[in-house]
Amino acid sequence: MALIPVARSRPSPPSGKRNLFPYAWMTPAFLFMALGILVPLIYTIYISGTNYDQAHLYNYHWVGLRNYGFAFSSDPYTGYAQGYLWLFAWTFAFAISCTIVNICAGGALALLVNNPRLPGRFFFRAFLILPWALPFTITVVAWRGILNTDFGAVNAILGSLGLGRPDWLNDPNLAKLCLIAVNGWFSFPYFMVLILSILQAIPGDLYEVAEIDGANAWARFFHITIPSIWPALAPLIVVQFAFQFNNAPFIYALTNGQPPSLDVSGRGETDILGSYLFSQVRNSENFAQMAALGTLIFVVIIILSVFNMRFTGAFKETK
Amino acid sequence: MAPGNPAARPRPRGRRAARRDRHLRPDQKRGIAVSWVTLLLVTLLTLFPIFWIVMTSLNVGNSFATGLLPSSYTLSHYADVWQHTDFTVWVRNTLIVGTITGVLEVVVIMLMAYSFSRFRFAGRRWGLALLVALQLFPAVMALSADYYLVNWISENWVPISDNWVGLIALYVGMSIPFNAWLFKGYIDTLPYDLEESAYIDGAGRFVAFWQIIVPLCRPMMAFIFIQGFLACANEFLLVSVLITDASRKTFSMGLFDFAMGNFTTNWTDFAAAAVMGSLPWVIIFLIAQKWFVSGLAGGAVKG
Question: Helix, strand or coil for residue B73?
Fold first, then answer.
């Protein structure tokens, strides 16, 4: 499948299977991973089976799967099933839209910039990379100002053109569109640069031969470009989907989940599962229930990613 | 493809190619014109928020420029930020935390990636599967667990809460799955012949690693370091959970609290802090860009 010539490594182990050398060298990384990920993960799963909350900080005990009940109960006063379903639906839609928008926008710009006949392409590249280079915290707060209904720059321009002043971040639907668009602004440079460097590894001869054979631009794109970049792109798609699925800091910083919904779950209209979880831990301090939700999120993202990997053929170990 | 080796890539065609192609067919000319205009529009849209931050930072008063340009300009906000906030403290803290995190990441990730790439051992496939699975782990979900873990360790073993030790350890741990996978893919693309001949010449494993693998991995090491560094500058959720001491805030946390903490944001001071704070990152980033690209692409383009 891969048309890119790759120098294949031939790792023949210098010693047998009983050698302790690789284990010793991986120990530091595993220790850090244990502290940073594994122990918090196991602890979260454990907490999700207890009644640990603000009222039981020191005397919590095992309660079984009770905390998972909220997630699946549709009781109008105590059941969160409906709210969680909406949260999941928006999280899924957000992750898919962002993945598609970011990769398509980055890929399209990479194709344009990759044209050697284009004058000034290095300037375009240098400027287009800036959203990636700037600190996220700064630009996301700036976007809050730009999209502000009363004094934001977008509405200043629209207002002077007589096009009204949309309530960008307070209207549930507009806010969702804004999140996807602003996410695109943040993420396209990453994919532009990556896809550009993958494109440059495709031998130019392939295109010349195809052109002589009478293949038009579309045919060259679908039969050379796409198959050539796919092996390198597929893992990025899977990781990008998982990343956006969990991209709570972005939601938290841009809209903080606002505007509020009327759900008993207390979610905001633009909250994804992760940002909802974060604000709930901050405000309600019902830790056990949120740990249960966190565990559910992890299970869901694992299932979705396994499906993604099968579908895209990413992460196949090379022999 | 050996990404570190420029000769392995087709050379980009420059001005000479443009001169050779002066006689283009009309449809090709039209295509170039269309893509040039498209790119120009996209670039203007992309730069607009940045332009807006700069203009706001120069505006008199404490709110936005009402039109596109301020009615009168001032540099006083820059002086304000420098004198009345902990700006320099944030930058210094970020430099320290980012550098330590980056160096630690490079060392542990490289050792792990080398072991996964060059050795076949029991549990290898499970280890790799674990790396892939943990990449998907939502860091936010464990924030409260992180908090209690760090506090528990401080109470029972060593004091790591409300200082940078716990923070750095967690940053390093969280960065490992994705980066180790990337780095392993990169080492996979390096030819094994060099090491083989070194072993035949009687070199030990350490010598082969230090004299062959490490020099070849420099682009990837630079990538991991800079990415770890910039991630520290960007991260604000974990740091706001773990750090309460104002003198230990990092840049993004300080700036985010500064912008969001007050009931009414002082936008012009924020913008001035943003411009001053961004400049070092942008410069580092633009200088390190080529390592970024070759590192990421080299790890991703595996055989």
Answer: strand
